[in-house]
Amino acid sequence: MADTRRPVSPHLQIYKWQVQMATSILHRATGIVLAVGVLLIVWAMLSLAAGEDAFNQFKVCMGSPLGMLVMFGWSWAFFYHLCNGIRHLVQDAGAGYAISQFVRSSWASVVVSIVLTLLVWAYVLTAGGAA
């Protein structure tokens, strides 16, 4: 009979969470959010093509508190995915593989994405674009 005792692979309960793990998972999750968010763009384009009444209905939905929350989250997902994608491009060029650089660039992608999101939404809200 074969020996069924096999080594157990480490799993999430064994690993200590690190920023690199979180940014890797976030990169995948924001990619999914961006793909689903394209449906909002399709809805906007279809309502724009359908006429003023349909587009006004779209604007009312996106101007609601839930719509604003969705758009804020989608814009953060965009900026995070962009920043982390740039970080990956730099790493593909062969730079930033030292542990300290890797951790620093992981945190930078999170912080810069939050700053860019806040800057864009500060402009949108002060310019009256979300009304």
3D architecture notes:
With 131 residues, the chain is mostly helical. The protein has one domain: 3 helical TM bundles of succinate and fumarate reductases. It contains four helices and no strands. α1 runs antiparallel to α2, α1 packs across α3 and α3 runs antiparallel to α4.
Main attributes of the structure:
single chain, 131 residues, mainly alpha, 3 helical TM bundles of succinate and fumarate reductases, 77% helix, elongated
Summed up, the helix count is: 4
Judging by the overall fold, what is the CATH architecture?
A: Up-down Bundle
Distance between the termini: 72 Å
CATH superfamily: Fumarate reductase/succinate dehydrogenase, transmembrane subunit
The fraction of residues assigned to DSSP E strands is under 5%
Total beta-strand segments: 0
SSE order, as H and E? HHHH
Assign the CATH class.
Answer: Mainly Alpha
Largest sheet: none
Query: What Rg is obtained from the alpha carbons, in whole angstroms?
Result: 21 Å
Overall pLDDT: 90
CATH topology call: 3 helical TM bundles of succinate and fumarate reductases
Query: What percent of the residues sit in helical stretches (DSSP H or I)?
Result: over 70%
Number of discrete domains:
1
Provide the structure class: mainly alpha
Shape: elongated
